[in-house]
Write a structure and sequence with these properties.
about 450 residues; mainly alpha; putative deoxyguanosinetriphosphate triphosphohydrolase fold; globular
């Protein structure tokens, strides 16, 4: 861009572009969503999932943005009105694009695998007690419960060696929208929605507090650590994700023969039937006309079901906006839709039983668990061994770290480990497998 020439994009559109062109986003194409990536049938990976979530999120942002812009206290505000009318959709879409950046290879088993090394060392053995004493209570909690949501914030804001200052340099609005669990690890509580997990690592506390201050997050009254209530935008990002994976996982399961055409069709029709703007007889007729290609018929119903859920969740947001603004709303938007409670519970139940416990899915999780936990053990053991005591193998293992993930010997044990985790959590399924094989001597 020529000096002095104004960017035609808004700063929120620029957030989207920076994410789309980032290497972290491209790597999502080789990270498992749910199913292993078969050659003969197309199913979703983390990248295609993120793009679809962003599409849903943009629609939600547009609907809610227009409603907010029409409020008396907003429509006469020349700063707020244009943002809600024109830019909220870009903020939500960008946050949706970024929401899975912190997830490691091999799905959710990758998260648990990263923490396995530290959990194994959480014993009363003398050597493990000495090992654990290298870390504070908060640091140890981070390491024994690695969290992809916290890692997403770290990826977006981390200053890596040899990289542009400020990480992705996204707007505060986009960053706050991914803070699904705005608390530190010691404040997490599985029984409370916004503290079910945690949203930042101790090493990134300053960044998190800066965002919380800038966006005026509501402080949470807890004794176990730092915690805030969710920003309202988070509910829209969460809804976009919930809508996408609930519906798309069903569609993928049909493509792979795990669920029957009838089973998926009936569930989608039950969702569509609640939409008064759709002619259900015409929808059924169209689906039937496409039945020669069952995948196309299901794709049509999937689009209709997603459309219904977009309007239902946006209505739920609007009806509960006062509680959401106060930070007192403790339900996801998709769980707030009374007329869909039965069918969504059924989809969840079937997904757990038939999809997430399908043989191929479980096999992938087990393999991923072993691969990722082994990589963490090799690299962390090498990093935490005093430099003078490292053997030749450990030095060569650390030599495999890309420059941007290297650490200083003067760094604390926690800082060293976080550099290792930055590397391992970022690799793709394929790269993790190849690295594991090389380190185990399976492949030369």
């Amino acid at each position: 861009m020529q000096k002095g020439k104004k960017d035609i994009r808004t700063e929120y559109e620029r957030d989207w572009d920076r994410l789309i062109f980032s290497s972290a986003f491209r790597r999502l194409q080789n990270k498992t969503q749910v199913f292993p990536l078969p050659e003969e049938v197309f199913v979703h990976n983390r990248l295609t999932h993120s793009l679809e979530v962003a599409s849903v999120g943009r629609s939600l942002g547009k609907i809610i943005g227009k409603k907010i812009a029409s409020l008396d206290e907003i429509k006469n505000d020349d700063n707020a009105r244009p943002f809600y009318r024109n830019s909220l959709k870009s903020v939500i879409a960008s946050a949706c694009l970024a929401h899975d950046l912190g997830n490691p290879a091999f799905g959710h088993s990758g998260e648990e695998a990263i923490s396995k090394y530290f959990k194994k060392r959480d014993t009363e053995k003398e050597e493990d007690i000495t090992f654990k004493e290298q870390f504070s209570k908060e640091e140890w909690k981070d390491l024994t419960t690695f969290e992809g949501n916290a890692n997403a914030l770290r990826i977006l804001t981390l200053q890596q060696k040899g990289r542009v200052k400020g990480g992705f340099r996204l707007t505060y609005s986009t960053l706050v929208s991914i803070l699904k669990y705005p608390c530190e690890s010691t404040a997490s509580n599985k029984n409370i929605l916004h503290r079910k997990k945690y949203g930042y690592f101790k090493i990134d506390e300053e960044v998190f507090l800066d965002i919380a201050k800038e966006l005026n997050l509501v402080k949470d009254d807890v004794d176990t650590g730092i915690s805030y209530k969710r920003h309202p935008f988070v509910f829209l990002v969460e809804a976009a994700d919930d809508i996408s994976y609930n519906i798309i996982d069903y569609e993928d399961a049909h493509r792979l023969g795990i669920l029957s055409y009838k089973e998926v069709k009936n569930s989608f029709l039950k969702i569509i039937e609640t939409n008064s703007n759709d002619n259900i007889k015409r929808v059924k007729k169209q689906a039937k006309s496409l039945k020669e290609d069952p995948n196309e018929s299901i794709a049509y119903l999937r689009a209709k079901a997603i459309n219904t859920l977009i309007y239902k969740t946006s209505d739920a947001f609007w009806e509960n906006r006062e509680a959401i603004l106060r930070g007192n709303y403790e339900k996801s938007l998709i769980d707030s839709i009374v007329e869909l409670e039965s069918v969504m519970k059924k989809i969840e139940k079937v997904s757990i039983k038939k999809i997430y416990n399908a043989k191929k899915v479980v096999q992938l999780e087990i393999a991923g668990f072993r691969i990722m936990s082994a990589l963490v053990e090799d690299f962390v053991t090498s990093a935490l061994t005093v430099k003078e005591s490292r053997d030749k193998e450990q030095n060569k293992i650390l030599g495999l770290l890309p420059k941007q993930f290297s650490f200083e010997e003067s760094n604390s044990p926690y800082e060293k480990v976080m550099h290792i985790i930055d590397f391992i959590a970022g690799v793709t399924d394929l790269y993790a497998l190849k690295l594991y094989r090389k380190l185990r001597g399976i492949e030369l």
